Amino acid sequence: MRNELTCWDYVPEFTGQEAALAIVGEPQSDQLATLHKAMPVLNLMRRAYDAARRWFSDEPAEGDIPPIGLLVSVEMQIARGRISAELTAAGADDVRFLTWLRTSMADFDRQTFTRDVLARWVQEVGASSLYSFERLPAKSVNTSRPMQRQVAQELAILEAIRQAGWDPLRLPRNKPGKAGIKAQVRMALNADPMFTGTTVFDGAWERLSGNGDIAFSD
Predict the structure, then answer these.
(1) How far from chain centre, in Å, is Cα 15?
(2) Does 132 reside within a domain?
(3) Which end of the chain is more exposed for a tag (fewer CB within 10 A), N or C?
(4) pLDDT tens digits for 189-209?
(5) What digits encode the pLDDT tens for the residues 1-39?
(6) pTM
(7) Which domain holds residue 149?
(8) Residue-level pLDDT at 66
(9) Is 84 within the bounds of a domain?
(10) Does 103 map to a domain?
């Protein structure tokens, strides 16, 4: 393996672009020629991820085996894992996960992928990679836990909005003298330990707003 690829050894989770660059034997780069070289791999990854998104959206039965070559992201696993554990106990379907799949939060460009998933995917599609994703140093930094909590907070806010009877992309403007939808959602989630802290809810709300997952109607 070329020395310049060792920069990837300290990356625990890859964006699609980072993974594509590593597969074609390139370090991190914003050069157009280098990105163009990685584009065929990136497009293949996008199709594999979109296929996984469609497969889950079709609500497969428990025990169904997914087709070979699907690409599952960290965010997809977080959404499905947290929700399954919570809603199965209540005897409900994975409503939050299915909702997540339909939002821009599930778009390919906002996903990251673990080394294990990428190594398996490369093998399943019969591709060759100039970088081995199986090499993970013991000192690499695991950044998944803060991201898991953020995704969980965002999903909880989206669900609370829908439970209040509103479309997250068409939220009502505040009326004078009345609590707005943000205040209502904050109150609904006030006892949720995920939102402990004076700025946690506002931070999650701003992430959703900044990413276009919630918006006020004109």
Answers:
(1) 10
(2) no
(3) C
(4) 988 888 888 889 999 999 898
(5) 456 788 898 888 999 999 999 999 999 888 999 999 999
(6) 0.65
(7) 144-210
(8) 79
(9) no
(10) no
